[in-house]
Amino acid sequence: MNIKKIIAIVLCIFTLVTLTGCFGASLPASIDDEGKFVYAITRSGAEKSVEIDDAARVLRTAMKDGFDCKISMIKDTAYEDYDGNYEILIGDTNREASKTAKDRLLNNRPNNANDFIVAVIDEKICINSVQKSVIVHAVNWFAKNFCASVEDWAKLKKGYEFIYEHENVSGAINTVADADLGTYTVVMPRVASYLVGFGAEEFEDYYTNFGYKINAVEDIDPEVEREILFGDTSRKESQSVKVEGDNYVIKVVGTKLVVKGGTDLATHKANEVLMAEIKKMESGTGFNWSDGYTINGKYDPNEKGAYTLNWNDEFEGTEVDLNKWGDYRNKSHEVGTSCLGGFYGNQDVFGDTAYKGPGTVRDLIYQADGKLHLGAQHVAEKDFVNGQVSTYYTMVYRYGFFEIRARHAETPANVGYWANGASSDSAEAVKRFGTVQQRPAMTEIDMLENFGSNTAFHSNVHRWWSSKNIEGATVGSDHNALDGSSKYSGNSLNNKKKVYDTERYGDDLSKDFHLYGCYWDDSCMKFYFDGKVYLDYQFDENQSVSVHCLMNYFNTECHIGSAAYGVTYDPDEHKDYYETEIDYIRIYQSDRFNSQMITAWPERQANGTSTIRYPDHDVARKY
Question: pTM to 2 decimals?
Fold first, then answer.
């Protein structure tokens, strides 16, 4: 349901009964001797807003048509305010009356995102809303009621105030401990799976759509009285609720609502149950839960649509699992030039490297203490060897939650988590995974590239394609990415660069383990850190959507010494060895989408049997 689309329909049926209010003296004469309207239309000059500009133009046109006069339209930065300056203020201007009207609107009720106010405050007529997308509806309402003629304008009095309260479809609300649930603060653990964060995000989006302004924090933030606690937060109410295994609990503890499972999958199920209860208010059935109210349940992996853990490595034991990991396209045999002019290359999971120099290459890829260790080594004066592992020969997948819990190496080491399907039409790939991997194009999903930084990293989505001549031979290739798009970078809240707040957390990404991931389905990719999304890439806003629905394998590495990538290695400043530790890698999938996963046999095993996780799903280029 799109609440905003209903606003215009509702406003069209408003009558002059809405004009009742605090009537005082009439406003000053509106048209001067030169045929110019006394009131100027004023908008902010400090903030560029298409919605506000459109609203101002709509109002000017309506007033010119209704009053047959000239209308001034200015920005508030054009000159300072003064006594006798009559203005119609659109949106948030620098005039004090704009702030006064906005405060009245915000304080009127909590679910105010789709509301607007029209208020006459001294010499100003204020038209404002919480969301800029609503301002045009507010202006249309004002124009219809006051701008059709001079007689209609005369109905506007000093002290007049009208607040439009947008109603949801049913008018019902959900309450917890005698308070509207839409007023609750969302609390997440500092570090959590997006299986947990997904539910918190859905709650925020749902209530925001109904006009509430939701406050979302982490459990390290100051506590407030009314909170909804998603997952295993550090709040005492969360800790008081004990749940194990596949079980989950939704429980009111005092003025807090706890939503918690024994596993991330169980918590995800609890989130779904909670949202199903919440959405009943659309049919007029809001709930009223008091202290002690409890819903108990259990996650069932066999339930239709359930997410399941389909591929993972917890890195227990002392040996790397060669059933899951191998080399990436023989990259260990490729040789490049380092930033110091010497050798630059990789060591693979088998210990192989093309390095033949004077230094001794240590074991850069190993398991210990329940973790996978990926090393990067300055071997000799100008030479570097780096560790890399891949599922190129062993696993490809499409859709799901891909999560990595890791501690990154210190600067200048580069860490990368990425998936793609390049060269996947080779004879070996077809033998292992079938014709699913034959393609003229592919997507590279850069879940994380840190470019040697301990305090920031980037995500990206690249589309690669090749061109063939009339004989069918490949003659060239090209690609594009999210780079350069203001929608995904700079000051955008939907930013492909994630900056870690070292002042808030008191450390950097090399000091502790964090959870990095990418959620992927048939409509979007969402990149998240510690369970919170920072980049939401929606396919319907881009071309060539189908290329994002192809199978990919996964790669990860730790490296130093590149001539063109990341922080330049300085032998006088940097160490000879750096290491990234990975605690686990997990892929959760569901049959609710056209998900797919194919696992094959170890790389150095000549033949074997491949397993298709969802045999009834399409494995080619269908969504």
Answer: 0.81
